[in-house]
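hey so i finally got around to running the thing on that chain from the lab meeting. sorry it took forever, my laptop kept dying and i had to restart like 3 times. anyway pasting the input first so we r on the same page abt which one it is
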Amino acid sequence: MAKHIAMAGKGGTGKTTIAALLIKYLIEKKKGSILAVDADPNANLNEALGYEFENTISQILVDIKKGNVPTSMTKETYLQFELHRALVETDYVDLLVMGGPQGPGCYCFPTDILKRHLANMDRSYDYLVVDNEAGLEHISRKTIEDVDVMLVISDPTAKGIRTAGRIYQLAKSLNINIADAYLIVTKIADPAPLQKEIDATGLKLLGVVPYDPKVVEHDLKGISMLDLPDDSAAVLATRDMFDKLKL
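ok and heres what got predicted. didnt touch it at all, straight out
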């Protein structure tokens, strides 16, 4: 079974960039096969990785809910077929985009199939890297079960750190099985002024990522974060952090 690594944090903290840098790290260290799952409704992990996708899991579930299933297929067969088509496959990492909220009505049947499908896919990869939104929807619904490492990302503000703490408390209140949880603070060189707030979160500080103009440049130009140079401040900082995780 794959090692599950989940990212969480509010928008604008650099969460998706950290997810992309983790994937870059795993690729460069030749750690094994990777399935990236963009579980943030504001999906942009594909942009950070430089990939394009044609369909989202949520849209597939909506189509099934509306009865848009070929008469020659059962709902389960159709879902599995569309899930396979929605998978973005590359040489180093595959990507699934979950998409936004599914709207009113019961999606229990297709969601249950999705859980089984992801569980089956799990066996084909060494790592599952999940970019979550702050509400942890897909983890809270057990679409993605068990988390080996949770990385909660915050900006360098007291409010941001407190939000990170609330996200961690939310995860614990949902009875999510989390083996290890850490805090990463972005766009800062020295966390000392925030140490009191950091301690209050209950999270272990994995490290900080300084402001990196090369990350900004790649984002503005639509260049994959996988192509950041080795001397990038963000690459150097996260490489040291990920080494500590002994992935």
